[in-house]
Write the structure tokens for this entry.
Amino acid sequence: MTSSGELKIQWASQYMPVLSAIKKRFEEEKPLKGQRIGMALHVEAKTACLVRTLQAGGAEVYITGCNPLSTQDDVAEALSAGGIACYAKRGCNTEEYYAAIDKVLDAKPTLTIDDGMDLINRVHLDRRDALPQIIGACEETTTGIHRLKAMQAEGKLEFPVLSVNDTPMKHYFDNVHGTGESALASIMLTTNVLIAGKHVVVAGYGYCGRGVATKARALGARVIVTEVDPRRALQAHFDGFDVMSMNDAAKVGDLFITTTGNCDIITDHHFPLLKSGAILANAGHFNNEISIPWLETHASSVEHRDGIDTYLIGDKKIHLLAEGRLVNLATPKGMGHPIEVMDLSFAVQALGVEYMAKNGKNLSAGVHDIPSEIDEYIARLKLAAVGATIDELSCGQKEYMCSWNHGT
């Protein structure tokens, strides 16, 4: 009998034509033969498809989670049954979380894949014994890239890292459509509340915030955007959203979704201003966008439901989803980004790892962009998979676009 985890992986794989095409080539060419790949990602069905693609390319793969609440245990079991060293489990505490990362590093990986930079951070600070054999790495998400660039600025990053997060394929689809749809879907499944008619406050108007705001409006929400960057705030205004400070938004919001990748977005300044019944959710990476310690300290009681903690502050109820962790993955029914979106992002990861295996020894330590030809190749594969055709520039058009002396 096929296990539930295996069924999930099989379901996802049928909607991942780009990654499937890459896997088929990897099976034939074995471009990762001899590589040991250490991964810290959300261990669920789409990730499992990436893992098996890398395995098909000849790599030994070692994986753990990148969030204590995002692992699907049945998928982790299915990976283990298929010969993958998987150390992830749902609901682990901090000590168990880093112990699992250490197990990945015990394998002495030659390449790493991160979502949030915890693995790379661990290597540089506590597991320097794992440094010498690492050729390079790939980083999946905005928060991880922020941390890596800060590390690079201080001269502390000791090997090259490809910024998967900063590719157009990641920004335009994973961040906008993936985060936008999955965050709202998870909120609705967890709470069963109506989005239409509510004042939805979206903190941050980067690619993720833009996706959440746009899709919330499509569901009938009255969307408010908060920002610290005046250009992004102005963009949100011209996109048709109300823009105000969190102090002002706190007074009118019904549902709050943070997407900043920063800390202290909803804090002790804002909790007293919230309506009773306000729902707080985080779609950024770490659980520090909402000041949970303040809630725990000041609540007279806490009611626990599946995926919802209700804090009683005076006569006011404040509902926090998924313990302030990634709402699209950490709620009991959170499934993460839609499959078709992760087909693109994990295709970038797979080809990024192949590129790093071939070229990493010639790259300097620091953050590097994914070559644009990889991103374009993935887009062409996806267009072919959906049956879309596009035009090509003629020789005359190419010459025109490269010239400077064509006038009126």
User: Anything to note?
Assistant: The two ends are 71 Å apart (CA to CA). The chain has a mean pLDDT of 96.
